[in-house]
C-alpha cells in the first residue's frame, strides 16, 4: 500500500530554516502533481507549493523567495526547504500527491499525516 510520510518539522526561532521531507512508501506509478499544504487549527488549509511532473513549480505569495519545493524521483522523496521562517509560518505541514498533472488535479489521491512546524519570535 502506498503511504506518504512527512518528517523534518520542529521548533525554530524566526529567521531559521527547516527542510521538510515527504517519502513515499510502497510501489506505484510515478506521481504527477505534488503539493505541500499547511493548516492552522481553526483556519482553512492553504496550498504552499506545488511541483509538477515536468519539474515546474508554483508558490503561494507569502512564501515566495523563502521556500523551495523540490523532488528526488529516484528516492521517491518530496522536499520543502524553508528559509527565513516567520512566526506566521507556524502550522501543520502536509504533503499530497496525485498521478495527474497539476492542471488536472481536483483532489489528491495520497496525503501524509503531517509534520508540525513552530516558529517563535
Q: What is the beta-strand fraction?
A: over 45%
Number of helices: 0
Number-wise, the strands total 11
Order of helices and strands: EEEEEEEEEEE
Arithmetic mean of pLDDT:
96
* N→C terminal distance: 41 Å
Tell the overall outline: globular
What is the quaternary state of this protein? single chain
Q: Could you give a short account of the major beta sheet? A: 7 strands, mixed
Rg from C-alpha positions? 14 Å
- Residue stretches low in confidence (pLDDT < 50, at least 5 long) are none
Helical content (DSSP H or I, runs of 4+) = under 10%
- How would you classify the helix and strand content by structural class? mainly beta
